[in-house]
DNA sequence: TCTTCATACCTAGACAGTCTATACATAAGT
DNA sequence: ACTTATGTATAGACTGTCTAGGTATGAAGA
């Protein structure tokens, strides 16, 4: 999939991944790739700025970790991040519903 | 709904609307608003450039029409536009499926 | 008559977020 | 030594939506 249509959905998906527990950026990229069946293979230039944005917005907190001699920045949801994660899922559902309605009814169960 | 997440989906939705027959830009905006239950209220600065893009790409053809003293530009799908409309729907389905998978399984039937 | 609203199109520039390309660094395998 | 995988980061390009402004007609109401 070519990915400009990701616009506006990346943040929500990152929050969704972090809802299952703290993780570092590289790990989130892997998890996104895994969950989406390879569909979403985020560029580094996408994921790191997104995480910084989210942290600036107070939705994430981070701490440095060293594992096997390599350092990682591990992110976790703040309280407002948890709320945002729920909110983003709701937004996605509404968006999905609206787009489905535009594309028309019948053939959509095939998704 | 705030609409940056529309990015990349507008073209497909316009093609979807035109799959039901020729229509002019203003009418498409109305139809999009109607089908989406008011969710998608496209700015004119969004819809007209999008239509021009689509026509430049050879997916649409247009002709001027005068109705009640007002002129309209009526768009219709070209042959490649029809193919693109099908393709875009398929792309949307794949995208939807992938995002759903990222957001996690259970609660998604609620959409 | 004048104003306002709905219809109808258009565009320049702002803006936001993704992508490309590059850089740095460690560990493990060949 | 070299490559691959892990891991983070940023500048600048790019794309597409949004803001805000413009043009124009017709109908309704003050």
Q: What descriptors fit this protein?
A:
homodimer; 111 residues; alpha+beta; Arc Repressor Mutant, subunit A; 4 helices; 52% helix; globular; DNA-binding
Largest interface between protein chains, with number of residues from each side: A-B, 37 and 37 residues
Oligomerization status of the protein chains: homodimer
Low-confidence blocks of residues of chain A:
none
Helix segment count of chain A? 4
Brief characterization of the structure:
The structure is a homodimer. The first copy, chain A, is of the alpha+beta class and about 110 residues long.
Task: Compile the SSE list and pairings.
The structure is a homodimer of 111-residue chains.
Chain A: H1 10-18, E1 23-24, H2 25-35, H3 44-56, E2 60-67, E3 70-77, H4 79-103
Antiparallel strand pairs in A: 1-3, 2-3
Helix pairs in contact in A: 1-4
The structure holds a DNA duplex (30 and 30 nucleotides).
Structure description:
The structure is a homodimer of 111-residue chains. Chain A is α+β, with helices and mostly antiparallel strands. Chain A has a single domain (4-100), classed as Arc Repressor Mutant, subunit A (Orthogonal Bundle), CATH 1.10.10. In chain A, 52% of the residues lie in helices and 16% in strands. Chain A is built from four helices and three strands, in the order H-E-H-H-E-E-H. A three-stranded antiparallel β-sheet of chain A has the order 1-3-2. In chain A, strand 2 and strand 3 (70-77) form a beta hairpin. In chain A, helix 1 (10-18) crosses helix 4. The longest helix of chain A is centred in the last third of the chain and has 25 residues, at 79-103. The first copy, chain A, is globular and about 55 Å long. The mean pLDDT of chain A is 91. At the A-B interface, helix 1 and helix 4 of A face helix 1 and helix 4 of B. The first copy, chain A, binds a DNA duplex (30 and 30 nucleotides) through residues 3-4, 6-8, 10-11, 24-27, 42-46, 48-50, 52-53, 68-73.
